[in-house]
Amino acid sequence: MESIERQTIDSYEVLLVNDGSTDSSKEICESFIRGKKEYRLINKLNGGLTSARCCGWKEAAGEYIVFVDSDDYIEAAYCEELYEACTKGNCNLAICGYNTINDNGYIRSYTFYDDIMVLENIKDDYVRPMISYAPKEKYNIPGFLWVRMMKRDCILTDCFVDENTVFSEDIVFNLEYARQVNKIAIVHKPLYNYFMSTDSLTRKYRPNLWGMYRNLHEYCTNYCQEEKISGSKIRLDSMLLGGMLRCIHQTVYFKYKFFQKEFAAIRKDTKTKEMLHSLKFLSKEYNSILLNYRLAYCMVRFIPSVIVYFFYKWRLN
What we know:
The protein has helices at about 1-5, 25-35, 50-60, 80-90, 120-130, 170-180, 210-225, 235-250, 255-270, 270-280, 290-300, 305-315, and strands at about 15-20, 40-45, 65, 75, 95-100, 105-110, 120, 150, 185-195.
């Protein structure tokens, strides 16, 4: 909230969404915004991240909107530079770079499209790279909403999906919003500071993680067909492999019975079987598939779950 208060833009509103907190967050917000007419606190029952964002969007009055997560902070010029990029380029979307900060204070910076100021080839240079990470491609863009300023009227209800149903709900939001985009302004500065705690690796077990990945994959597959996104198959395959690897990494922190259940769900999945049997890693077109994704392929297709589990347990130690 202090970083928001330091914004250099002349006119803006701040909506603080208290999503059913059970600590002193409500009182902290009330104290902070007292006497500040541009601030408003919205108290609601707990509904999760997507619910909180949707609530803020419905209450917002400004022409443009940004979403800032509660444990991060923004640079003083964050709103002003994104807004100027939108208005000067007549764009309904602007993207900036960001910093990641870990528990030890280490900072790493990321920027995108370093050779472009305004992006116009939306499908090839924005939508397709966002579907899945490919290291050998010229452009890769993360789905984080907090690096983006969007025109409020271009955000649709379809942008908001439950984070407990689809993994990486930000990707769905961005792909739906991309249907409204004409041009994208790029700000080549890290204006957002994302706090990345090491504890996030061991957070509570999510029993339906593979199902959430499958829902994301199904959505992206249908989206690519509807929008006629060329060259999407390899990226969609890579997305599924990445989902396998993430599920393995998550469940290895817990008891073997949880790991075995998740591993079996991946192996028995019809779509997984189809994809694993259709991959042609030796062909040139699959050169961009990451090495650890190839490892996930081998583990799921050929190696017993107990060996995979204890291999990763050994690596953790």
